[in-house]
Write a structure and sequence with these properties.
Blueprint: E1 3-5, H1 6-14, E2 39-41, H2 75-83, H3 89-92, H4 101-118, H5 122-133, E3 142-143, E4 147-148, E5 162-163, E6 166-167, H6 173-185, H7 193-202, H8 207-220, H9 238-247
Antiparallel strand pairs: 1-2, 3-4, 5-6
């Protein structure tokens, strides 16, 4: 069964599956507009992931050449492409012990549960997670003025398996779930993906352009007044990278030139 309702996924968690129930906090934002997904469908596209990179510039619109949602690969295909490297990404990046298969399975379960609870497309969650942490459950907490812990490098969240010298191995399922949930639903200190999607749609951006805009807001807190997703502060290639991850980019050389 590939399509699961929100109620079904949360009921499975409540019934005592390996995934704990999502922590109910005031910051558990949900997508409120047309960009919300009503169910989690692992075969949400017939497109297969392709590990290539095309540089996108401009405002994230299909008119500017960015991929439409219909060009995104299915979650199953994207997961398979990324899960193939997740057993090695911690060591590749100098972050210590690599992910175990159990930890990888818990990452997928956490993505699916947060998607169901928030209405955020699970492909978008996966893409941002891979952008932020390469999927390493023991990615270090970074701090460039704002503390960014965990798989989603969220805004001063409370979940991490590598924070201030405290490395957890194995990384507990509850911690993995919390890392994903903080990045999707937000924290007491800052917005997650659901809130940035709402902000993007509130500014008149919807569909694929709304997701690329939301990614830029998640990365830098705002979009440049010009509307150019590669302008302004933080990571200029961020939205282009997310667009490529949604079509299957994993290891191919980046072609981003900004």
């Amino acid at each position: 069964m590939y399509t699961r309702s929100i109620a079904t996924i949360l009921a499975l968690a409540a019934a005592g599956s390996a995934l704990p129930l999502l922590n109910k906090r005031a910051q558990n934002v949900v997508v409120s507009g047309s960009m919300a997904v009503g169910s989690v469908n692992d075969q949400d596209s017939s497109v297969q992931a392709a590990d290539t990179y095309k540089f996108y510039s401009g405002d994230g619109s299909t008119a500017a050449g960015w991929p439409a949602i219909s060009q995104w690969a299915s979650f199953d295909s994207l997961w398979a492409a990324n899960a193939a490297v997740m057993p090695n990404v911690c060591n590749w990046n100098g972050w210590g012990v690599d992910n175990s298969q159990s930890e990888i399975d818990n990452v997928r379960a956490a993505i699916e549960a947060s998607a169901a609870a928030s209405g955020v497309d699970h492909r978008f969650i996966l893409a941002v997670m891979m952008q932020e942490s390469k999927g390493c459950v023991r990615v270090p907490t970074t701090n460039g003025g704002v503390r960014n812990p965990g798989l989603m490098q969220d805004h001063d969240g409370t979940h991490s398996c590598n924070d201030a010298g405290n490395v957890q191995n194995p990384c507990p399922a509850a911690e993995i779930n919390g890392m994903i949930q903080d990045g999707v639903g937000g924290t007491d200190a800052g917005d997650g993906l659901a809130a940035t999607i709402n902000q993007a749609e509130g500014s008149g951006k919807s569909g694929a352009q709304g997701f690329y805009t939301a990614a830029r807001i998640y990365n830098s807190g705002s979009v440049d007044p010009s509307g150019d997703l590669g302008a302004g502060g933080a990571t200029h290639c961020y939205s282009s990278d997310i667009a490529n991850r949604l079509t299957g980019w994993v290891l191919a050389a980046t072609q981003c030139t900004i």
